[in-house]
Amino acid sequence: MTNINVNLKQRNICMEKHSRGLFYLGMAAMMAAIFARNILELPIPVVAILAIGALVAAVSTRDEMIALVIACIPMSAALQYKYLIFICIIIYIMKFAKDVKITIAVLPLLFMMVWELVHGLFYPFSVYEYLRGFTELIFCTFLVMIVPKKVDYKMICRLLAISSICMMSIVLLNLLEKTGYNFAAIFTGSYRFGVGNTEAENFGVNYNANELGLITNLSIAGLLQLIASKKHHVFDYLMIVVLTMFGVMTMSRTFLVCFAFIIAMFTIAGVPTLAGKVKRVIFIILMILLILLLVYALMPNVYEMFADRFRVDDISNGRNDLFAFYGQHILSSFKYLLFGVGMQDYGTIVNDIHKTTWDVCHNGIQELVVCWGVLGIVLFAWFILEMLRNKPKSIKRNIINFIPLVLIILGVQAGQLITSGFTLLSFCYAYVSLCYDFSGGYQNEQVSQGN
């Protein structure tokens, strides 16, 4: 009987692997449509790309559907991904209803949603924006409530990396077209890699340089996790080099700091012996030297431009002043400290209160307080705690599991958190990482809800 069960499990795994062809074909069609719309300038409506995504979801297995949503982290600038997330939730419930278990993990989400509704009684409020603002948190909570059957983390990591490279290549091709395919001309003046189609109002595959840096680091982190756990492929090394090159092109100091963190974590992750650590360090040094040589050969101006960004009088690029302004706002009233002003258009509300014209917060923790007061930090910390509590019973986490989560928390110290869709969507990726057994691969255990 035991042999029969083992054979059935092996057959099911093989069937899922063999059925990936249709899923990959659908993902290729989505990316091809995005390429045709933004590079070939074909009149493809964004809703058509959304429709392809919905068809992909309809034929997907459990882990393929999760991978589709996580691939929307880089593709968020190219399609109406929030609608696709809700479509995936509906299709998942229709196909795998028995997986979904209502647990205590839903409480922090409900409290955050109710808390935002309360703010709507006192500040401008839109039901449409309210639902859009919680889309990513809803999906992440949905993931926590799912009893995972088989999560192919290798496929999820590689799909995220491939989709990131595809989107960044579209940005690069748009730029090359504007410079007559003169690669060096891209890096003259003050341009930072991210905006490729300046004429597009929506879904033109345009990014903030720091956001693009975080997307790049998340993709690199996943591939390094596979290498650290010896589940990698030669192609993964090539993708790491390409992604790092794109990250350097952003000239984002946040990218550089987070990249250094990833390398430090990778150095010590999954290497129990001194000899193993020495080999890992040698590998890292060789990889960095290769990247430095490639950058010097292809983008010699980037070194000087990157160095100039560290020579300025205010290395925070105005973030210190922003932090001070919003800090003064928070402390100016007990109401703002405890209650906040809500998520929706909070920058305009705060500027109207103080008759100023400051930018939005560039610190994710401070943004939580500005939007939801001190209670906002408590609720979001509870949300993360539920992510940490819920995992397959047999998994013993190690430092590898935590790399994406810590990377996100580090990255938002120089950006937005609760109002950044792609950042919130990244927590879904972090949760899958927390639930994966890097020593044993597929897990067939039910989630331990800790109730």
Describe the structure.
This protein has 451 residues and is mainly alpha-helical. Helix content is 67%, strand content 1%. The chain is built from 21 helices and 2 strands. It has helices at 2-18, 20-38, 46-58, 62-70, 72-75, 81-95, 106-119, 127-133, 135-145, 153-178, 209-228, 234-249, 253-268, 274-298, 300-311, 319-331, 334-338, 346-354, 364-389, 399-411, 421-434, and strands spanning 391-392, 447-448. Strands 1-2 form a two-stranded antiparallel sheet. The longest helix is centred in the middle third of the chain and has 26 residues, at 153-178. The two termini are 33 Å apart.
Low-confidence stretches: 1-16, 441-451
Q: How many alpha or pi helices?
A: 21
How many strands?
2
Distance between the termini: 33 Å
Overall average residue pLDDT: 85
Helical/strand content category: mainly alpha
What is the general shape? globular
Helix fraction by DSSP (H/I, runs of at least 4): 55-70%
- Biggest sheet, strands in spatial order? 1-2
| Biggest sheet character | 2 strands, antiparallel
Alpha-carbon Rg, integer: 22 Å
Following the backbone from N to C, one meets helices and strands in this order, namely HHHHHHHHHHHHHHHHHHHEHHE
Strand-residue proportion: under 5%
How are the secondary structure elements laid out?
Layout: H1 2-18, H2 20-38, H3 46-58, H4 62-70, H5 72-75, H6 81-95, H7 106-119, H8 127-133, H9 135-145, H10 153-178, H11 209-228, H12 234-249, H13 253-268, H14 274-298, H15 300-311, H16 319-331, H17 334-338, H18 346-354, H19 364-389, E1 391-392, H20 399-411, H21 421-434, E2 447-448
Antiparallel strand pairs: 1-2
Helix pairs in contact: 2-3, 3-6, 4-6, 4-10, 6-9, 7-19, 9-21, 10-11, 10-12, 11-12, 11-13, 11-20, 12-14, 13-14, 13-20, 14-15, 16-19, 20-21
